[in-house]
């Protein structure tokens, strides 16, 4: 009888087990993605946004404005935040985002975007999550702020960290 109970308990704890255990988002968790922005990215973003500021296309204009070279659109860099959230939580609904632009991002620099869960609360059959957001280059903050998103689940889907 004792053996049967132990086997039953062991089988019960193995149900749903896979080689990759499901992770669930909790307060304090950080999700990251790295990206290098190219001249082509800047051109394509400009076409969609209709932002053709010469700071993004002309090195001399950028230097005259006090920058080292052409700068990547700040909103293009900030697009890392919804990319991170939606890639880990397909079907997430972005609700809000505040942004503070701290340092310029130049074409060819590697930027690491991070979102950190700072508050999660159930909302009907979904979850309202508040995230601290930041982008870094060489350890320095280039953009920070906060985002809110409605998540369909707290199960974190695994994705690669490029792109």
TrEMBL record:
Protein name: MaoC-like domain-containing protein
MaoC-like domain location: 35-124
A GO-annotated cellular component: mitochondrion
MF annotations from Gene Ontology: (3R)-hydroxyacyl-[acyl-carrier-protein] dehydratase activity
Pfam assignment, any one: MaoC_dehydratas
Biological processes annotated in GO: fatty acid biosynthetic process
InterPro entries: HotDog_dom_sf, MaoC-like_dom, UPF0336/Enoyl-CoA_hydratase
Annotated organism of origin: Rubus argutus
CDD domains: R_hydratase
């Amino acid at each position: 009888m004792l053996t049967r109970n132990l086997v039953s308990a062991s089988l019960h704890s193995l149900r749903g087990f896979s080689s990759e255990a499901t992770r669930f988002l909790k307060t304090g968790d950080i999700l990251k993605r790295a990206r290098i922005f190219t001249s082509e990215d800047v051109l394509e973003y400009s076409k969609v946004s209709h932002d053709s500021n010469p700071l993004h296309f002309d090195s001399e204009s950028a230097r005259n404005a006090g920058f080292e070279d052409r700068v990547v659109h700040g909103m293009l860099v900030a697009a890392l935040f919804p990319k991170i959230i939606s890639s880990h939580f397909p079907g997430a609904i972005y609700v809000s985002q505040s942004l503070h632009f701290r340092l310029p991002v130049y074409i060819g620099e590697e930027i690491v975007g991070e979102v950190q869960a700072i508050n999660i609360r159930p909302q009907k059959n979904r979850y309202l999550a508040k995230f601290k957001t930041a982008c870094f280059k060489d350890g320095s903050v280039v953009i920070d702020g906060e985002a809110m998103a409605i998540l369909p689940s707290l199960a974190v889907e695994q994705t690669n960290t490029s792109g």
